Automatic annotation (TrEMBL):
Its EC number is 1.3.5.1. Its cofactor is [2Fe-2S] cluster; [4Fe-4S] cluster; [3Fe-4S] cluster. It comes from Lottiidibacillus patelloidae. This is succinate dehydrogenase. One of its GO terms (molecular function) is 3 iron, 4 sulfur cluster binding. InterPro entries: 2Fe-2S_ferredoxin-like_sf (IPR036010), 4Fe4S_Fe-S-bd (IPR017896), 4Fe4S_Fe_S_CS (IPR017900), Beta-grasp_dom_sf (IPR012675), Helical_ferredxn (IPR009051), SDH/FRD_Iron-Sulfur (IPR050573), Succ_DH/fum_Rdtase_Fe-S (IPR004489), Succ_DH/fum_Rdtase_N (IPR025192).
């Protein structure tokens, strides 16, 4: 019966950003339909490792618990994914949990995502408005365009695509697939299109579109199935047109 079963979990831990990582193992009681979050909460409730030693509770990020916020991303058995939708029954044991190494580790499984947020600022991944007063109804987006734009809007800034991308690392300034796809999304918006050239110029600089190696790991790992490589291909076309505009318009 399930009351005699246990779940074997190995966690790569780190006391602080400067300290060395180490692996600690835990065995917890099995319950049907457990996900990784519930397993971590069980360890937090009774922080005793597999050697029977009392230890500090594991630190990790979580919020919505329904794969919407993107906060609980981590590497599970070598694959970056959301821990709230990672079911214990579908994972090979021992289950190895690691932080995403594309981002600086704060402690244990908690990471600093500022790299990704700074990239979103760089490309102005928002719709600017003039003041806070009522501007009335905005321009309508054609239904066909709205449908594919909605797919891009599913991005939850989880960082999984950046972790999967070999070109996003500590030695590279590449902003990664998620911010690039947001450029396409906001450039497609009738109001956001006003800043289209500014966004394209931002990804035509160092760390932008040219740093993509087309490994396509991002589209395979995205939890929301966002067509990231389609966005990158479309942006390649848009930046080429923009570069021609810059060249031929330079004398004006």
């Amino acid at each position: 019966m399930s009351e005699n079963k246990t779940v074997h979990i190995k966690v790569t831990r780190q006391e602080s950003p400067e300290s060395a990582p180490y692996v600690e193992e835990f065995k917890i009681p099995y319950r049907p339909n457990m996900n990784i979050i519930s397993a971590l909460m069980e360890i937090r409730r009774n922080p005793v490792n597999s050697k029977g030693e009392k230890t500090s509770p594991i630190q990790w990020d979580m919020n919505c618990l329904e794969e919407v916020c993107g906060a609980c991303s981590m590497v599970i058995n070598g694959k970056p994914r959301q821990s709230c939708t990672a079911l214990v029954d579908k994972l090979e044991q021992p289950i190895h949990l690691e932080p995403m190494r594309t981002f600086p580790v704060i402690r244990d499984l908690m990471i600093d995502r500022n790299r990704m947020f700074d990239s979103l600022k760089k490309v102005k991944a928002w719709i600017p408005i003039d003041g806070t007063y009522d501007l009335g109804p905005g321009p309508r987006m054609p239904e066909k365009k709205r449908q594919w734009a909605y797919e891009l809007s599913k991005c939850m800034t989880c960082g999984v695509c950046l972790e999967a991308c070999p070109n996003v690392n500590s030695k590279s300034d590449f902003i990664g697939p998620a911010p690039l796809s947001q450029v396409r999304l906001f450039n497609a918006h009738p109001t956001g299109e006003m800043n289209k050239e500014e966004r394209l110029e931002a990804i035509m600089t160092d760390g932008g579109l040219a740093n993509c190696g087309n490994s396509q790991n991002c589209v395979q790992s995205c939890p929301k199935g966002i067509p990231l490589t389609t966005s990158i291909a479309a942006l390649n076309r848009d930046t080429t047109i923009q570069s021609f505009k810059n060249f031929f318009g330079s004398d004006n």
